[in-house]
TrEMBL record:
Example of a GO MF term: phosphorelay sensor kinase activity
Signal peptide coordinates: none
Protein's gene: luxQ_2
Protein name (Swiss-Prot/TrEMBL): histidine kinase
Compositional bias per record (Polar residues), positions renumbered to this chain: 410-421
Enzyme Commission number(s): 2.7.13.3
Chain spans, region Disordered: 407-427
Keyword list, A-Z: Kinase, Phosphoprotein, Transferase, Two-component regulatory system
Keyword Endoplasmic reticulum: no
Length: 559
């Protein structure tokens, strides 16, 4: 005896049907006949069905039941269907409740109005049972898809927040010891040169400093990429000089080129705008990375930075910076991987030349944020040309240069405060500084730098000690010239300590010290009452300059 076995639906499909059948459907119609017809058609589908006799009753039940689907009659007394629809859309999102209008209007205007005002679909009067079932079924599927999409979006946002928290913690844990490593290396180098230590000693220190710098570049690249992916990396649009940017970049990379015996050249294709509206910091970041790669992959020859204005009718003008080298070059297959995160031309590139492959990814995304792009042409063993474009903004009224000008002023303004040698000049002489820092290595390092610059230093090992020291200074009528407040400390962290100090009426300057470098960390420090912010690892010169500048402000009078 032969028989056919009925094939069962996949488990996921069965679960999906069960989920849809549990949906709540509310029928709002002042006609008992219509309510009966709709209920009869939908009852076999397994939905939980409710009914309301008019618009007011419908709106009351909508708030009580919060159904998945509302079948809403257009023409009803006291509160018509469109009035109820307005209320629903004011209070509930599309994924929370779908509305299907039930209407006798077949001229198209009423149907168009329903869609415009937020209805998902409509059912004409009269309608067959199959049509009623199909339209409701489609609405329920759509609303569940919207809910799943929202759930997935929330999961993605949660995962992104977890990633940001991980990166922030990673950054903090690495930056904190890097402060001591880089700081003491710099101090030892200064002492070694002063006492004319053997070359091996200096070379060893240089190796430590150089590799520490590479590690910091990696951390910064990862954080930049994370910010870009999260949409939290801001770019400015300020007036800046392309010529000044190019000259500053070449000055910054000159030492690296000379160390390999390479020649750097700048070539300008005139006319060029004297000024553009863009983000000079991000342009410098792109160019330094591109030229750094050119230096890395070039053994002999010249590296040329070309600058040219591109103008296409009907489009906003762009400035193009091209870095041309005579290095190892690439094949077409190698170029295909260039702009993918953590990828280089091939695996041997990383082994021979080092690097993570993040730099070009970041540069391409930065160029895109500046309204441009990065492209590359290359020939194996001949060299490469990387071209980065950025939007210039409107050039109306902007002078176009036919030759270079003297650029005494840098591309962006900087502080007038400069120090030739803080250790020799004792710029902080007479300043009394409270250092709140729990790490013993960083305590010693920062205190050493400050004392070397002439300051008197008091140390607090946690936020509570810093708070008590600030209160004692207030009571004695002699505030600290500056409080350096580490933000991650035991007992009472720097955020809480700063907030308590400000609430107690302390008005002296407070500078936050933090190894956190994610988006919003600076703003968080300022929001609790800090005057400024220093990121670890600490730059000795910048820290001394900031303290000198902020302590020049007249000390507030205590009442």
């Amino acid at each position: 005896m032969f028989y056919t076995r009925r094939k069962r639906a996949p488990k996921a499909q069965e679960n999906s049907k069960m989920k849809y059948r549990k949906s709540k459907v509310l029928i709002v119609d002042d006609s008992e006949v219509v309510r009966h017809i709709l209920t009869k058609a939908l009852a076999p589908e397994g939905y939980t069905i409710y009914s309301a006799i008019d618009g007011e009753d419908g709106w009351r039940q909508i708030n009580e039941l919060q159904p998945d689907i509302v079948l809403l009659d257009v023409e009803m007394p006291t509160l018509n269907g469109f009035d109820v629809l307005h209320k629903i859309r004011d209070q509930f999102k599309a994924e929370e409740m779908a509305v299907i209008m039930v209407t006798t209007q077949n001229d198209g205007k009423g149907i168009a109005r329903a869609f415009e005002e937020g209805a998902f679909d409509y059912i004409p009067k009269p309608a067959t049972e199959s049509e009623i079932k199909a339209r409701v079924r489609n609405a329920i599927r759509a609303i569940h898809l919207l809910r799943e999409q929202k759930h997935l979006r929330q999961q993605a946002e949660a995962a992104n927040q977890s990633k940001s928290a991980f990166l922030a913690n990673m950054s903090h844990e690495i930056r904190t010891p890097m402060t001591a490593i880089l700081g003491y290396t710099e101090i030892l180098e200064l002492e070694a040169r002063t006492h004319k230590m053997p070359e091996l000693f200096l070379d060893s220190l240089d190796t430590i400093r150089r590799n520490s710098g590479h590690l910091m570049e990696l951390i910064n690249d990862i954080l930049d990429l994370s910010k870009i992916e999260a949409g939290k990396l801001d770019v400015e649009s300020i007036t800046c000089s392309p010529q000044a940017i190019v000259e500053e970049v070449l000055e910054l990379v000159q030492v690296r080129a000379e160390a390999k015996g390479l020649k750097l050249e700048a070539h300008y294709q005139f006319p060029l705008p004297a000024q553009i509206n863009s983000d000079p910091t991000r342009i410098r970041q792109i160019l330094i990375n591109l030229i750094g790669n050119a230096i890395k992959f070039t053994e002999v020859g010249t590296i040329r930075l070309e600058t040219e204005l591109l103008q296409t009718p009907g489009e906003e003008p762009c400035l193009q910076f091209s870095v041309v080298d005579q290095g190892i070059g690439m094949t077409e297959a190698q170029m295909a991987n260039l702009f993918r995160p953590f990828c280089q031309a091939d695996s041997s590139t990383s082994r021979k030349y080092g690097g993570t492959g993040l730099g070009l990814t970041i540069c391409k995304r930065l160029a895109s944020m500046l309204g441009g792009d990065i492209s590359v042409t290359s020939q194996l063993n001949q060299g490469s040309r990387f071209s980065a474009t950025v939007r210039t903004g409107s050039l109306e009224g902007i002078e176009l240069l036919d030759e270079l000008r003297d650029t005494d002023v840098p591309a962006t303004s900087t502080s007038d405060t400069t120090l030739s040698s803080p250790e020799e000049e004792h710029p902080l002489k007479g300043k009394h500084i409270l250092l709140a820092e729990d790490g013993p290595d960083n305590q010693k390092l920062i205190a050493f730098i400050l004392k070397k610059a002439g300051a008197k230093v008091s140390v607090a090992e946690n936020g509570e000690e810093a708070y008590q020291a600030a209160l004692m200074a207030m009571e004695s009528g002699s505030l600290f010239d500056v409080i350096l407040m580490d933000m991650q400390m035991p007992i009472l962290d720097g955020y809480s300590a700063t907030r308590k100090v400000r609430e107690a009426g302390y008005e002296g300057p407070i500078i936050s010290l933090t190894a956190n470098a994610m988006e919003g960390d600076r703003e968080k420090c300022l929001s609790v009452g800090c005057n400024d912010h220093i990121t670890k690892p600490i730059n000795r010169r910048n820290m001394v300059e900031m303290i000198l500048e902020i302590s020049r402000t007249p000390e507030p009078c205590l009442s």
